[in-house]
């Protein structure tokens, strides 16, 4: 930078030189520029940890003696002087406050860089450190090494990424020794631009039933890590998902409160839910064995969506799997569409029974009449089923009916002749019932 540029860009809080720079780029250049400092306040975060900040800079087209040194203690004033600098470019020197001295350790800096800037496009170099036996600590060397990966896999075209690369990226970022079960990778362009990369693991996490557990979705803004525990990115019933959302439009200084009110984030959330449900629907229709692996691990979690996401309830219901008297199998393999495909003529309901175990459900005496008539009954024994059914009352215009309820409508389970016999029996008993009623009334 020149002396004037230093004063203009560093001497004014909330004036973003980066934003002005981007405005001057052409269309394609502007689209491809992965520049993050566009809010005019990022540089001043240095004063949170520093007593003094010094910036030494020289533009490439200026002579050596026209380099500039900008210095400030962050209290409102700064000084600018010219000096000599052979190399073009900019050097920023932070005088770290005593209460932030841990930032001077190599491991701490590496930890911060790998968390927040691991995937920015440019390499971040630090001096290598080696263990010195004599002094008993790490010693800096003159050799430089790249601390960050400088490779954001999700920013590449899907056609350029191999299946093995997707798997290795998952294991590296989410610290899983197993390959993922399935994944989906999409780039959305338009008024709200963002990229989604979602994985479904093969096995559930040990704390999957903890509803207070933070999700495993990492939010990035132009490759810079922002947060990974916001409930605004996905609903709780999809907490088994691991993935990355990288937005080009969300502010870098976004807070959880702003996320709750952000129209962009709401749009991303809705799109993400749709994308994940589409992925599950696709795999359930194309690879049933793989879907059943998913269901056995995460099916009970997905059931929470029936009562929590009414806008997608029908789509979630199609993904549910149950045990059934159709095959008397404990494994949950039967979908509601499977059940409907086997409805008896004039059957208007989907019948089910709930119990605390599969064994108790399948041995229930309530099943006797349904077995006799060849009517299928779903066998529900998960703890969440009663709660789920309080929200799921029908599917494809068929009511879900418990066979253990007293108000069970008998029309599905009795044919026309049986109903005639029942009516005839009732009429033949009417005289006797009338006599009993009169006799009891006198006493």
Give an overview in words.
Keywords: ATP-binding, Chaperone, Cytoplasm, Nucleotide-binding, Stress response. With 443 residues, this protein is an alpha+beta fold. It has four domains: 1-104, 2-Layer Sandwich (Heat Shock Protein 90), CATH 3.30.565; 105-151, no CATH class; 171-293, Ribosomal Protein S5, domain 2 (2-Layer Sandwich), CATH 3.30.230; 324-412, Rossmann fold. The chain is built from 15 helices and 17 strands. The strands form four sheets. It has a six-stranded mixed sheet with strand order 13-12-15-14-17-16. Strands 7-8-11-9-10 form a five-stranded mixed sheet, with helices on both faces. It has a four-stranded antiparallel sheet with strand order 3-2-1-4. It is elongated. The termini are far apart. 22% of the residues are buried.
Summarize the structure.
By secondary structure, the protein is α+β, with helices and mostly antiparallel strands. The protein contains 15 helices and 17 strands. The chain has four domains: about 1-105, Histidine kinase-like ATPase, C-terminal domain (Heat Shock Protein 90, 2-Layer Sandwich), CATH 3.30.565; about 105-150, no CATH class; about 170-295, Ribosomal Protein S5, domain 2, CATH 3.30.230.80; about 325-410, Rossmann fold (3-Layer(aba) Sandwich).
């Amino acid at each position: 930078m020149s002396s004037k540029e230093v004063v203009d860009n560093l001497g004014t809080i909330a004036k973003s030189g980066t934003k002005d720079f981007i405005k001057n780029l052409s269309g394609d250049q502007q689209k491809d520029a992965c520049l993050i400092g566009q809010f005019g306040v990022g540089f001043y975060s240095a004063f949170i940890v520093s007593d003094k900040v010094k910036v030494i800079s020289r533009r490439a087209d200026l002579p050596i003696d026209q380099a500039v040194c900008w210095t400030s203690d962050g209290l409102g004033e700064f000084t600018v002087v010219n000096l000599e600098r052979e190399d073009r470019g900019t050097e920023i020197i932070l005088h770290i406050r005593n209460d932030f001295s841990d930032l001077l350790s190599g491991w701490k800096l590496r930890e911060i860089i790998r968390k927040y800037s691991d995937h920015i496009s440019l390499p971040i170099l630090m001096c290598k450190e080696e263990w010195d036996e004599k002094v008993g600590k790490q010693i800096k060397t003159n050799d430089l090494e790249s601390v960050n990966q400088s490779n954001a896999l999700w920013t590449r075209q899907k056609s350029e990424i191999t299946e093995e690369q997707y798997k290795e990226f998952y294991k590296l970022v989410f610290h899983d020794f197993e390959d993922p079960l399935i994944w989906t990778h999409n780039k959305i362009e338009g008024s709200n631009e963002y990229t989604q990369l979602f994985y479904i693991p093969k096995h559930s996490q040990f704390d999957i039933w903890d509803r207070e557990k933070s999700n495993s979705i990492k939010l990035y803004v132009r490759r810079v890590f922002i947060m990974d525990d916001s409930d605004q990115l996905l609903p709780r019933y999809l907490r088994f998902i691991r993935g990355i959302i990288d937005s080009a439009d969300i502010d870098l200084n976004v807070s959880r409160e702003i996320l709750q009110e952000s129209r962009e984030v709401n749009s991303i959330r809705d799109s993400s839910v749709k994308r994940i449900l589409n992925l599950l629907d696709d795999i359930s229709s194309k690879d049933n064995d793989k879907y059943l692996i998913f269901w056995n691990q995460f099916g009970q979690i997905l059931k929470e969506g029936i009562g929590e996401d009414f806008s997608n309830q029908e789509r979630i219901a199609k993904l549910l799997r149950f045990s059934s008297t159709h095959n008397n199998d404990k494994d949950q393999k039967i979908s509601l569409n499977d059940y409907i495909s086997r409805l008896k003529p004039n059957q208007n309901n989907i019948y089910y029974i709930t119990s605390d175990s599969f064994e108790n459900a399948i041995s229930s005496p309530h099943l006797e009449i349904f077995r006799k008539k060849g009517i299928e009954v779903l066998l529900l024994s998960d703890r969440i089923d009663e709660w789920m059914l309080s929200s799921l009352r029908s599917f494809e215009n068929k009511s879900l009916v418990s066979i253990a309820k007293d108000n069970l409508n008998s029309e599905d389970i009795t044919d026309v002749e049986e109903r005639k016999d029942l009516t005839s029996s009732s009429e033949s008993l009417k005289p006797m019932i009338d006599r009993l009623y009169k006799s009891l009334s006198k006493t």
